[in-house]
Design brief:
5% strand, flat, 110 residues, 2 strands, mainly alpha
């Protein structure tokens, strides 16, 4: 699949996909001549990067998750740490949501 197809499927601009590739956040896709050829696995990786960034993970943290080896339980340890971070952020978002919900119901001018 071409980079424009990946951009359409993921909602990630072509320039950003190229940036992820340049920074080695995602693996370099195979090439057919001068065109990149992306797989469904590449699409899932780009979607993961997009979603993880929206949760506040840095590109460095995301790269660590995607590039870590599975040896000696290293990936499981890293995943556990990040899951805790995600849970904490979800709890904070729920608190914000409750406050915003209360504000929506407020009929006062102050």
């Amino acid at each position: 699949m071409r980079i424009s197809d990946v951009a359409d499927r993921t909602g990630v601009p072509i320039s950003t996909i190229r940036y992820y590739e340049k920074r080695a956040i995602i693996p370099k896709p195979t090439r057919n001549g001068r065109d990149r050829s992306f797989t469904q696995k590449d699409v899932r990786a780009i979607q993961f990067v997009r979603d993880a960034q929206s949760l506040g993970l840095t590109l460095g943290e995301i790269s660590t998750l995607l590039q870590s080896s599975w040896s000696n339980g290293e990936m499981a340890k890293v995943a556990t740490e990040y899951r805790q971070t995600v849970r904490e952020r979800m709890a904070a978002l729920k608190r914000i949501d409750r406050v915003l919900s209360s504000l929506e119901m407020c009929c006062c001018d102050s």
